[in-house]
Amino acid sequence: MNALASVVFVALVLLVATYLVAVIDATIMIRVSRGRGYTGVWMDPIARAARLMMQRGSRTERPDLQVWFLAPALLAGLGAVALASIPVAAAVHVADNGAGIVLFGAAMLQVMVAVFLHGWAANSVFPMLGAFRMAAAGMSMSIPFSLALITTALPAESLSVGAIIVSQEGLWNVVRQPLGLPVYLITALAFSFWGPMQLPDAADLAGGTTAEISGVALLVWRVARIGVLVALSAMGAAAFLGGYLGPVLPGWLWMMVKTAGLATVMVWSGHHFARMRIESVVFLGWTLLLPIALVDVFLSGALTL
Amino acid sequence: MTLEAVLLVSAALFGIGVYGALSQQSFVMIMMGLELMLNGAIVAAVGFWWGTTGGNPEGQLLAIVVMAVMAIEGAIGFALVTNVYRVRKADITEKLRKLRG
Amino acid sequence: MVWLPVVFPLAGAALVLSVRRRRAWLGPVVVASLLGSLGTAALAAASGARSSWSWGAGIDLGVEVAGVSRVMVVLVPLVAVVVVSFAASSMREDEALPRLLALLAGFVAAMELLVVAADFLTLLIGWELVGAASWALIGHDWRNAQAPMFAKEAFVTTRFGDLGLYVAAGATFASVGSFQFADLAAGPNDRWLAIVAGGVVVAAAAKSAQLPFSPWLFSAMAGPTPVSALLHSATMVAAGGYALIRLELILSAVSWFGPLVVGLGLSTALAGGVVAFAQSDLKRALAGSTSAQYGLMLVAIGAGFTAAGMAQLTAHAFFKALLFLGAGVALHGGGTLDLAKLRLGSSLPTVALLFGVGAAGLAAVPPLGAAFTKEAVLAAAFESGVWVGSGVAVAGLLSVLYAARLHILAYGRGPVLEIEVGPHPVEVWALAILAAFTLALSALWLPGGKELVSELTGAELPEGQSWELAVSVLSVVVGFVVVWLLWRRNLLLSGGLPSRIRGFLANWWGIPDLTRRAVVDPLINVSNRLAEGDGSVIDALVRAIAGSVVGVSQRLRHLVEILVDRVVDGVGSGTILTARGSQKFDDGTVDATVEAIGAGIRFGGDQSRRSQTGMAHHYYTLLVGGSVVLFIVAAIWR
Amino acid sequence: MSGVIDLLFWAFGASAVVTGWLVFRTDSMVRAAYWLMASFVAVGGILVLLDAQFLGLILILMMAGEMTIMAIFMVMFMMNPAGLNPMTMVHQHRASIISGAGAFIVLALVALFANFLAEPVPTGAEPTVDLGVELLGGSMLVFETAGVALLAVMIGAVALVSQQGRFGDAEAGSLEPSLETEGP
């Protein structure tokens, strides 16, 4: 694909998917709370976005303005880069040559940087605490996350996401590496700071890194966060659920269905589980997920041999 | 993009790293200078691999070794800085002059 | 196949640690793993096999069971099974029993690796693992502050010798481009081979506790008794002798190799014999005898008769393990290792009898197998020269003396004591099995024994003369008579020596003190000085120079003043004007010159001191400047 | 296509150098850490252009974690909670500039005037696959050695910073009698 087309393509996919996830979120929210004031599931995200766009931006004392404004854009860009490494249908991809899965991992680890900078730049207490939380959670989760992902490359004998999908022709990785998907999903929650691991932007910190922003900046930040979630779900679908492989329906539809399924699971977890404490996240990452991920690597390696 | 250009970038990074390592007072900033030097070394190593070895993977291996050195430098550096700070309450080089003659 | 004797004990060690809570399983698990090692070793020895594993380009880890290693690969687990059973029983109260057993199993695994090694790299790996495991075992009782210190001492001493093996491995690689023994054997006989020989001899001397490294064995006594038994009989200490036996064929091409090994061995055999005779601590006396016995083996090896050395090593393994286990029983029963307070013969008659078998082996009383091997060593020594032979005969006499003394003092008749902790039946059985092996070796005297030894070791035994046998028997008789005489006069403990001399001899002829004074203290001093800051040394130098110059100049001025005064007085007051003039000259010129020199030097010193800022960034700047200059010089030079 | 690659290379190269320079020109420790990361990301881009996709991406991946740790350390050691207050901590500035420039000039002269072999990576090669085969094949020993060295470093670092040793407080007896270490 040529450059301009791929940029437009990724942006379009991201926009549509973000909208859909917001709808899912709203649906569940309504199911859970039966709240009043909703303008209907399909209209709600747009209404919320419109409200945010009309808000006035807020300002703290001597923030690092460039970083503060650019961090949401960086987060959105990272979501797009991550999405670009995943084929949506056979041979339809933007940047999956050679080492696509490493590109995805690099983008996701940079998410940690984006969130840290976003919290740090505000020069305010709560955002700073949120930033430190992201660093702690990200550092503890990054190794199990990378291990769970890289394990899917073992049967494919390639680091390209396309090859990983093709290698699942006979058997999906979710069956072949039963430990992989749970570890991946839990760590993915930390990287999209969603649900029980919504620590940097948590309510107990009055919104954490988003405590001091409003208006368009907040809108971009929220959209970008959903974008990261979409990228993580899409990678989960590609690496563990066979991506675009499936009978009857066209490939891209399968990919969408699987991605939406994983996204629903993660969104659902946010409404049904309590938020974890940061200590438990760190503990979980280092003492439980890391050993499980290592076992996953060894078992899958042995199976591949 | 020629080998000379790659090596020039590498030399520039190395030079800046040297400047940083020598001019900074804080231990952590000195470590940043060292990392920048290693950064230049990686560029040079991969550049040589790309331009002069005909694709022999041992060139890339050298870059991986440099990365390992970087990680080692980071880990041991931070451990030493922490320990020095705890024992001597020193965080800049001027406070650590035990070897002065 | 060849790897299995190594793998079994390793697996046993891992298994022991994983079932550490079920204490009843610990002993059986380890013993089973060692039996597995023994069985596979026997199979490997019967079939003879080799194998190798490619580690990287040009670096292969080779293992081989052939020649002498066929005997050794079986001997190690055989002794280890018995000793470890004893350990599992006698240390059953020890909280850290799982660690001890796991380490013992690992120790055996490392030794097996060393034994089957067919190249220097594998040998080094085994060698290092043996050293590390022995460190951990000696320091087993780490809550006792002394044990880690002794472990460190033993480790550092042997470690120093290990460097020799590194040099040897490096020289081998430099010479023939691989680490294989076979390649070295086929390689040229040049100075590289001489370096290899030197390195191997240093390493072997350190491991086998030969002079001047012998005292580390005393430190090793801090470990539990079964550890000592294993360490002295078939593992750690045996490694040195074994390495020499294994490499003798290759290294004997170096002209000084044989004489050097003979000299080392003979001097250690004589010195160690005296130490063993003078010691009043049971385990330390045994340690001295170990050095002496390995010295005898080295004599045989240096004389070119590896078969005699190997036979002696085998016989020694059985009776020395037996003696150490007996010492362990004595420690448990009598609560002490002080030879003045033991005499457990009447209290523990069975153990006393079994210990007696071991002591007889140590004394080489015919018709035991130990006497046969001692005979072979003696013959080998006489082959190498009359003086060497006579020395070995004297060493043999010494061994009779200390063996008989030890038995009488430790397990002689004495008052019947209340034994606090009697030996468990398993322990007595362990002793009995070792005694049985010692006795069984007597079969070597039968016709065909010689051929058997030659066939097993793949080397010839020396042709013994009948008068040599007579010399041996005579020395045994003389030894017993002397001991009996000393015993009658109640001089056996002191050996008839004044206590100061005895203390000196018993402490390895003062070698530990000498080492401390000549090596350790200066090293620590230098390190302390360096730690105080190199500045103080350099400063002192600079200050001393400046100070002395100032001093000299003041002296000079004083002298000049006196001289001038006298002249002035002598000439009289009429020349006061002249005198004043000259004094002015003295003050103005001579003084000024002298002081200027002093000040100049002091200034130089101060200036040079300024470069010693103690701050890293200044040094780094100099470093960068220096590298740039070097680089430019190199570029121009090209 | 090569025009685009050239353009990208110069963009990456310039940003690597400029951000590297900014590391020491900024007055905040956190900014310095992330400028350094930006420099590494640019170098990662250069490596990708040089056909070493895996190395470039793994460099970016590694640095995200390492620089975050560095930023946190900076904030901790500078007693400057957000690392936002301006500060300059520089010594022997002129000598450093001369050293850095000297190092650059020498290396640049080497780069421009030395004769190197010209054997580029053949087209159609798969560097990532080659690297994988090399790491777990011919150069396994090197790779393993690096791994073991890292393990040793981890243990050593933990031993260095652990507050409690087996025999009690790790700092016991290690404190200086006085903090003034001025010599004569």
Notable features of this structure?
heterotetramer, C: 638 residues, mainly alpha, two-stranded antiparallel ribbon, 25 helices, 2 strands, 76% helix, 2% strand, globular, D: 184 residues, 2 domains, 65% helix
Set out the fold topology.
The complex is a heterotetramer of chains A (305), B (101), C (638) and D (184).
Chain A: H1 3-33, H2 44-54, H3 65-84, H4 100-121, H5 125-151, H6 153-156, H7 161-166, H8 173-176, H9 180-191, H10 215-240, H11 251-272, H12 278-304
Helix pairs in contact in A: 1-3, 1-10, 1-11, 2-10, 3-4, 3-10, 4-5, 5-9, 5-12, 9-10, 10-11
Chain C: H1 4-18, H2 23-47, E1 49-56, E2 59-65, H3 69-90, H4 97-116, H5 120-138, H6 146-176, H7 181-186, H8 191-207, H9 216-220, H10 225-233, H11 236-251, H12 257-278, H13 282-302, H14 306-334, H15 349-363, H16 369-384, H17 386-411, H18 425-440, H19 449-457, H20 466-488, H21 499-506, H22 511-532, H23 534-571, H24 576-610, H25 616-637
Antiparallel strand pairs in C: 1-2
Chain D: H1 2-23, H2 29-49, H3 53-77, H4 93-113, H5 127-135, H6 140-161, E1 164-165, E2 168-169
Antiparallel strand pairs in D: 1-2
Helix pairs in contact in D: 1-2, 2-3
Number of domains of chain A: 1
For the biggest sheet of chain B, the summary is: none
Class based on secondary structure composition and strand pairing of chain A: mainly alpha
Write down the secondary-structure element order of chain A.
Answer: HHHHHHHHHHHH
Q: Helical proportion of chain B?
A: over 70%
In terms of quaternary structure, the protein is heterotetramer
Give the uncertain stretches of chain B in residue-range form: none
Contiguous helical run count of chain B: 3
- Roughly how many Å apart are the termini of chain A? 36 Å
Beta content of chain B comes to under 5%
Strand content of chain A: under 5%
Which sheet architecture does the biggest sheet of chain A show?
Answer: none
Structural class of chain B: mainly alpha
- Overall shape of chain B: it is elongated
- Please, what is the average pLDDT of chain A? 85
Order of helices and strands of chain B: HHH
Radius of gyration of chain A: 19 Å
Task: Tell me roughly what share of residues is in helical segments of chain A.
Answer: 55-70%
Cα-atom radius of gyration of chain B: 17 Å
